[in-house]
Amino acid sequence: MASFQTVKGFRDFFPQECALRNYITETWRSVARRYGFVEYEAPLLEETNLYRKKSGDEITNQLFCFRDKAEREISLRPEVTPSLARMVAEKQRDFKKPIKWFQIGPCFRYEVPQKGRGREFIQFNADILGDSSSAPSAELIALAIDVLREFGICTPEDFIIRLSNREIWNIFLADKKIAEEHTTTFLSIIDKIERASAEETEKKLSVIGLTLAEVRDFMASTNENHPAFAELRENLTARGLWKFVEIDATIVRGLAYYTGVVFEVFDKKHGLRALAGGGSYDKLCALISDGTVDLPAAGFAMGDVVLGILLEQTPSAQMKLTSAYLAASSIDAFVVVADEAQRPHALAAIQALRAAGIRADYSFGPQKVGKQFQAAEDRKARFAIVFGAEYPEVVIKNLLARSQSAVPVDGLVAEVQKLLAEPAIGPLIA
Amino acid sequence: MASFQTVKGFRDFFPQECALRNYITETWRSVARRYGFVEYEAPLLEETNLYRKKSGDEITNQLFCFRDKAEREISLRPEVTPSLARMVAEKQRDFKKPIKWFQIGPCFRYEVPQKGRGREFIQFNADILGDSSSAPSAELIALAIDVLREFGICTPEDFIIRLSNREIWNIFLADKKIAEEHTTTFLSIIDKIERASAEETEKKLSVIGLTLAEVRDFMASTNENHPAFAELRENLTARGLWKFVEIDATIVRGLAYYTGVVFEVFDKKHGLRALAGGGSYDKLCALISDGTVDLPAAGFAMGDVVLGILLEQTPSAQMKLTSAYLAASSIDAFVVVADEAQRPHALAAIQALRAAGIRADYSFGPQKVGKQFQAAEDRKARFAIVFGAEYPEVVIKNLLARSQSAVPVDGLVAEVQKLLAEPAIGPLIA
Fold first, then answer.
1. Same domain flag for B132 and B277
2. Residue numbers of the domain that contains A362
């Protein structure tokens, strides 16, 4: 029993967990790049006031916030968008609009850990700044869909985009002659409508002069034909992606942050928490920069934790995951030193193999040949290369096909490269 | 002027800085994997006591340490080795020995920021646990050399491994009949010998019964023929890498941590701080696990900051760096909508291009064709694909070769894939 433990809510990434993390982050990165997004990263710490400015003072209850040795109030970042707004406000003149940026990295929140929510998680953020049309939202929704498809979460039976637009509620409230000052209160009632009891909701609505029936009628009548969705529908239909979208007027996503389109991504088979969420936030840059930079913006974030659970539970995703695990831990060639007199030659060959980009390993000290072959199998090597008394001839054994050939050591690297280019034969996964 | 600033000593990674970071981390990852190392990651936070246990109470002066809301004393990690020892102590039975693991991620230290040292840096750690011979040290030194060579830092004129072994000083002290209790004091004098004045060093040595002349004589007589280096020399000579090594008895690397081989990597042209450092630390696992797990170990760490400065200053490294910057921000194809009636078809084609792994982008709204071509150039696209009145025929323009061809839209993806497989012609870098 070790005397130290992982800090509550934090994760050790042993090789298998690290392979999952890398598979997720590399997939995010590769699909975002296909969409023409460019990567950035923000600091892991910011002044606590940055988060207060965006979310109000209550946010500090959910932050890892502390004072450093110089009494600065700093916080581990709970999200990246405030940093993005800060960075863009500082240097936006250096970049052509629209800015299409993505980011991948850890975030932190001080909450009671529960399934699908630790205190540390890795988040993927994609944002588009400087275009006020609905096209950025369409692009972001398409990206969210394609990211999931790349993971093997492929059909509208697997996941759904729940889409809304805060504008529809503004129109509703104007129709009902409700004063604008009630908008925030009203949206927070809608945000909780699926979790709260009807009585509770009715009571809250009555304070601002509405009934639950009015709200429910409006929600029932709101569908994809609402003009607020026309452009998005046309765009995503052209891409063949509208089938993944479901209008859901209850999606408002929290407080004052979002300004128009809002969406959340949910799996449809396992009842997990939201996989991703986002929308347009046209006022954040101006807020963070005290009005000096005013850029329309839209973005979404996807975390690694709920996604990881879904990948493990979805057969079409598991196969890709298994390949990723194998690729992360396997090597191409294991060099077997059958005759210790040849060790210097074996070391020179290992060096040459690695210099050619071949993943090669060997036993550090004298070991029985059988043990070395066992090590080659343990490492899931495709080839064992035997340095024995026949040197300068060496034997290449294909551990999957159970075949072998002999080559002069001078031709070894070229031969292994040739063999690696051939399709692997045999039981790849033990 | 933005109202918020980056926290002192922390970095914003705008796209160019992020491309440098990714180039460095991907190079580390790829060379480590060639060497058969498997990736892990530790939490960014640990109990402060973990660092106290390894380094003593003074370490807290250099830590970002704080109490969380439950009054736990926690610290942002200043290094990863204590976490590695904790993780290995917990689960070492699950892994075959030797364990060859690497890690890449941010570390933090609370220090006055200066050139080459911020409060946050990204570190690459490679460690081998469970083999007590000198072979792991040879493997690690070879890895450090090959990492630098992969970056284009290639010759012994560019960098050097300064190698020592604490054992040589143990033998020296035993010869001089100096009591073992003075070893730590003595090593800290040696650690500072190049920076301290001769008078100061003489004074400190006299306290434990030694003279500077004795020490200097011993250092001058210590060379690669010392038996403490015999195995390493043989191993690295077989790999053709001994030419990168220089024996330097002043290298002891700080306090009680290291037990045998120690080494540091320095550039030879720019007088920068050490690029990397490491050695064997056979007692750390036992220390961290209160004696329950005792594994010999060796490792090294390389940071991104000094390395980044060196890459920018070394011509043979700059070319690779420039390619990395281009690859991170460029796209394959920019779709030009010359006729707005074709926008839905263009969107469908963009979707198909991206699904085939092609990096494709476009203008979100109606824009003059000239502006769209300008955007294609700005994005360093290799091809512009024009959707105009000729649809379903589309025109592919090679923006480097300044040539063009027309294809039916059904054959677009295959044609672009074929063209991308051809070598790029033209001025790749503007």
1. yes
2. 330-421
Does pLDDT of A80 surpass 80? yes
pLDDT classification of A31: cutoffs 50, 70, 90: very high
Nearest 10 degrees: Cα torsion A376, A377, A379, A385:
30
Instruction: Give the A:B interface size as CB pairs under 8 Å.
Output: 234
Is there a domain that residue A87 lies in? Answer: yes
Instruction: Note whether B20 and B308 are within 8 A (CB).
Output: yes
CATH number for A336: 3.40.50.800
Same-domain status, A300 and A336 = no
Q: Cβ contact (<8 Å) for A11 and B348? A: no
Of B47, B110, B345, Cβ closest to residue A68 = B110
CA dihedral angle for residue B227, residue B231, residue B234, residue B240, rounded to 10 degrees: -120
ipTM: 0.95
Interface test with A, best of B1, B11, B33 (most A CBs within 10 A): B33
Evaluate whether residue A10 is within a structural domain.
no
Q: Do A47 and B5 touch (CB under 8 A)?
A: yes
B425 pLDDT higher than 70:
no
Nearest CA in chain B to A131: B364
Domain end call among B292, B323, B354: B323
In this structure, are B240 and B351 located in the same domain? no
Mapped onto helix, strand or coil, the DSSP state of residue B206 is: helix
Predicted confidence at residue A255, as pLDDT, reads 62
Prediction pTM value: 0.96
CA A386 – CA A338 distance, rounded (Å): 6
Q: What is the mean pLDDT of chain B?
A: 94
Nearest CB neighbour to B348, from listed A72, A234, A239: A239
| Rounded Cα–Cα distance for residues A337 and A343 (Å) | 6
One-letter amino acid at A404 equals: Q
**Helix or strand run (H / E) with residue B223:** none
Quickly tell me which residue has 């304070």 as its tokens: A207
At residue B381, φ and ψ (nearest 5 deg) are -70, 145
Tokens of A387: 């340095």
pLDDT band at A429 (very low <50, low <70, confident <90, very high): very low
- Read off the pLDDT of residues B196-210 as tens digits, 9 standing for 90 and up: 999 999 999 999 999
Secondary structure of residue A250 in the 3-state scheme: coil
pLDDT value at residue A2: 45
In the prediction, which pLDDT does B2 show?
Answer: 45
Q: What is the mean pLDDT of chain A?
A: 94
Number of domains in chain A: 2
CATH number at residue A132: 3.30.930.10
B65-99 pLDDT per residue, tens: 988 888 889 999 999 999 999 999 999 999 999 99
- Rounded to the nearest 10°, the torsion over CA B110, B113, B117, B120 is 50
Please check the confidence at residue A1 and state whether its pLDDT lies above 90: no
In whole angstroms, what is the distance from residue A34 CA to residue A32 CA? Answer: 5
Q: What is the pLDDT of residue A341?
A: 97
Q: Strands B99-108 and B38-39, how do they pair? A: parallel
Show which of B289, B323, B357 is a domain's final residue.
Answer: B323
Could you give the CA distance from residue B222 to residue A232 in angstroms, rounded to a whole number? 74
